[in-house]
Amino acid sequence: MVFIADYGAGNLRSVHKAFEYLGIEAVVSDKASEMSRYEKVLIPGVGAFGPAMEALNRQGFGEALKEHIDKGRSVLGICLGMQLFLSESEEMGAHEGLDILPGKVLRFTSSTDKIPQIGWNSVDYCKDSVLFRNIPDQSYFYFVHTYYCVPEEPESVAATTFFAGKNFCSAIEKNGIFAVQFHPEKSSEAGLQVLKNFAEF
Amino acid sequence: MLAKRIIPCLDVRDGRVVKGINFEGLRDAGSILEQARFYNGEMADELVFLDISASLESRRTTLEEVLKVSGEVFIPLTVGGGISSVERARDAFLHGADKVSVNTAAVSEPELISRIAERFGSQAVVVAVDVKKVDGRYVVHTHSGKKPTEYEAIEWAHKVQELGAGEILLTSMDRDGTQEGYDNEILKMISTTVHIPVIASGGAGNLEHLYKGFTDGHADAALAASIFHFRQHSIREAKEYLRERGIPVRL
After folding, report:
1. Closest CA of chain A from B120, distance in Å
2. Quick check: A201 contacting B, CB < 8 Å?
3. Integer Cα distance of B154 and B134 in angstroms
4. Mind telling me how many Å the CA of B15 is from chain A's nearest CA?
5. Which of A47, A124, A154, B9 has its Cβ near the most Cβ atoms within 10 Å?
6. Which domains does chain A carry?
7. Each residue's pLDDT tens digit in chain A (201 positions)?
């Protein structure tokens, strides 16, 4: 069973549908108090960092998530959900994140590439990871984002992707904390496999 | 590396896919779900459903079908046609659309772009820009190319970007249906001066046209209808052709 946190950040429906399609039970809930009943938690996200952090904290998801992780349970952050795990973001002024993973969220700059990155990009694995089991290296996933994560611990980086002249961190995996910058729920077969891997490991 | 996208565009009515065959009018080409499954299997990068229904009721039927698609085809879905208000856009999102495409309504009420973008994010707003060359100038048209507007294409493209459009779907009305290739001149002029992705549309008749749209036209994505509908080429074949010529694609 996967708990999908509803803190008003869109795209819950498609994540939920993806699990339904896979035959994996998932619930969407806006009640942080219910999180403790689940082994797996998913933090989706579309929108801006500041308002999302505010909403997460207002609904008690920030605290609940930290307790969840302290119990050794696992979590998957998607897109903005991934970025929220880090210490801080420079999106429209400086904002503090959940600080589950030390690191910063920075804005892409490029004179050649269009920002935001919109479309399918390939993912290069940095280590053996649970999330990418049964998915060939350099598979394509669907991205939509203007900011990217720079984790302080290089060993937490599960995969990188090349964009705007750099290899940025597109997936994180560290002691049950999982995060992906792309949208697995919009990345066809490869994306569905990522969700399956998270739910079933 | 970020891939160039290939996007089949399906004209739909009453929840069914329709195709115009040799100007003999529209023929039923199966359900939206069947076609969506087919193109997903062929590695289409996204799907665009353009609703040409005349009534609200038949648009509703289409949305019910899109909802089914979103339950089993997990790639970005765009719904266009009749998105004339935030409520219509919301309805499309509630039925599984990831993006809406606005055209005529955006010209008559440009603030609609901002209102949808503020509520659902810029990534969810595609502005369809239909252009036609009139006395050497590219003029934006509405109502399927029937009505000229006061806007010149480049000026309008920049305006919709400022208003919060996430992508521009640029259709050359002069080339649409001709199978003579995209109008790479206007495509390049717009794609190299805006910072949002530009999707080429109108005129693709063979695989080289797709290639030229990416190289000469600097398009970020290519939309095509007839070359895929009539199974002249498969999407996979198109992508293999492009990859052999150095264009990054998802295969």
Report:
1. 8
2. no
3. 14
4. 21
5. B9
6. 2-200 (3.40.50.880)
7. 999 999 876 667 889 999 999 999 999 999 999 999 999 999 998 778 988 999 999 999 999 999 999 999 999 999 999 999 999 999 888 899 999 999 999 999 988 899 999 999 999 999 999 999 999 999 999 999 999 999 999 999 999 999 999 999 999 999 999 999 999 999 999 999 999 999 999
